[in-house]
Amino acid sequence: MRCQLCLSFSWQPLCKNCLNTILAPTPSKRVLPSGLEVYSFYKYSEIKNLLHTKHTYQGAKVFSLLSKNALLPFIKNLTCKDIFALPIDDHVRSGYSHSAILVKELGFHVKPLYAKLRAQNHTRYSGQKLSVRKRNKRDFMLTCKSGIDVILVDDIITTGATLEEAYVTCKNHGVNVLCALTLADARED
Ligand SMILES: [Zn+2]
């Protein structure tokens, strides 16, 4: 197989060299109006083509490599214990859930909470304005226990509306959100 970026021969869809160079994470932080801190590791434009692989058969592998390369080092640096990782709406589409794969690679450092935060509204909002997104909420349903510390995990943050809604859902459920992690920040600035 070939590396999706440099096209050199590689056992994985992303080669070690690319992961260490062009895909070296550049962490950035956004604070949403609710106060939720969101850490992202790539600019959306940098990994746009890779994120689009999530609808292909290699997508699962690409997402797992990106999580190991970017999210895992961040999680390893956390000093607090007993943290749960909550993937946003990890419904299985095209064979697997991208946010669940990101969480899976975080290994023993956090406890995964699969299939606990589910959107009941599945309209796709790609390319829609914030006003449209705000009118059409995801209507999350959370089914985990309360009184725990969680980190929200998703692939992309755009307006932040989805993460804000997830945050409020957690808060109303008695779940403490420490921060959110996303692979890429798609904010246009
Ligand atoms: Zn490469």
Written overview of the protein:
The chain has 189 residues and is of the alpha/beta class. It has one domain (25-185): 3-Layer(aba) Sandwich (Rossmann fold). Helices cover 30% and strands 23% of the residues. The protein contains 6 helices and 8 strands, in the order αββααβαββαββαβ. It has a 6-stranded mixed beta sheet, with helices on both faces. A two-stranded antiparallel ribbon has the order 5-6. β3 (83-87), α4 (98-104) and β4 form a beta-alpha-beta unit. α3 packs across α4 (98-104). The mean pLDDT is 89. The structure holds zinc ion. Zinc ion (ZN) binds next to α1.
How many strand elements? Answer: 8
Estimated share of beta-strand residues? 15-25%
What is the 3D shape? globular
- Mean pLDDT over all positions: 89
Please outline what is shown here.
The chain has helices at 16-20, 44-51, 59-76, 98-104, 130-135, 161-172, and strands at residues 28-31, 37-43, 83-87, 111-112, 117-119, 140-142, 149-157, 176-185. With 189 residues, the chain is α/β, with parallel strands linked by helices.
Task: Provide key terms for this protein.
binds zinc ion, 6 helices, two-stranded antiparallel sheet, six-stranded mixed beta sheet, Rossmann fold, 189 residues, globular, alpha/beta
